[in-house]
Amino acid sequence: MLRLVIGVMGNAAALLLFAAPTLTMSRIVRKKSTEGFSCVPYVTTLLNCLLYTWYGLPVVSNKWENVPLFTINGTGILFELSFIIIYLWFSTARGKIKVTATVIPAIVVFCITAIISAVVFHDHQHRKVFVGSVAIVASVSMYASPLVVVKQVILTKNVEYMPFYVSLFSFISSSLWMAYGLLSHDIFVASPNLVGTPLSILQLVLYCKYRKAGTVELPNKRDPEGNKVNDEKTIQLQVVICDTENGKN
């Protein structure tokens, strides 16, 4: 009973996590530009959802033992596909190439994993081990993908491109799914969330540390496609200005 309750709570938290980037997508649509946001977290999350949806289906799991896992990740696929399409639509030509070069390998990895598990292995136990092992790697990559933005946050002392609610719901979701995996004695559900929980805490700590840092609109260089280019001197100047403003408070 407790396992089911945790699963339902995990579903609710994960749904909030999947929906959190809606604010970012609204900003991208409004400004008709992807700005400094990265598409990597959406692609890694899509792969994670694809693998865990497959993992939760009766083809891999024993009957419907992992219904919460199947339902929420199936929903996550719809969210992530929508975000990636929006990102592609408003991205530059170079950005579209980069996103496509990231999405295609993710789809290929899922297809190969699904085919091998269905054709090569003939019992649920071996299928769960195979698919779960691949899913662990994808899940850890999903939780680690925001670290790309973390570097930018530390350099600029600006949390603009690391939305608070994404970090918060990531922490709540990973904590609940870790509990669900432990109660189910399922290492393939619990272990990636053992990594995701501390990484989410790191993001929240950085947000609290830098959330009051000031930002100043500086002249930006642009490449031939019209994209903003923040060179090293610009970043350093932003940091100096932020430090100066913080010193006045």
Describe this structure as you would to a colleague.
The chain is mainly α. The protein has two domains: 2-211; 216-249. It is built from ten helices and two strands, in the order αααααααααββα. It has helices at 2-19, 22-31, 40-56, 67-90, 93-119, 124-144, 147-156, 164-183, 187-210, 232-248, and strands at 221-222, 228-229. Strands 1-2 form a two-stranded antiparallel ribbon. A hairpin with a 5-residue loop joins strand 1 and strand 2. Helix 1 (2-19) packs parallel to helix 4 (67-90), helix 6 (124-144) packs parallel to helix 9 (187-210) and helix 8 runs antiparallel to helix 9 (187-210). The radius of gyration is 20 Å and the shape is globular.
In short:
By secondary structure, the chain is an all-alpha fold. It is built from ten helices and two strands, in the order αααααααααββα. The protein has helices at residues 2-19, 22-31, 40-56, 67-90, 93-119, 124-144, 147-156, 164-183, 187-210, 232-248; strands at 221-222, 228-229.
Number of E-state strands: 2
Please tell me the total number of domains.
2
Instruction: Please list the strands of the largest sheet in the order they lie side by side.
Output: 1-2
- The number of helical runs is 10
Low-pLDDT runs:
214-249
Mean pLDDT: 81
End-to-end Cα distance = 51 Å
Strand content: under 5%
Structural class: mainly alpha
The rounded Rg comes to 20 Å
Q: Helical proportion?
A: over 70%
Order of helices and strands: HHHHHHHHHEEH
Largest sheet: 2 strands, antiparallel
What best-fitting shape do the alpha-carbon axes yield? globular
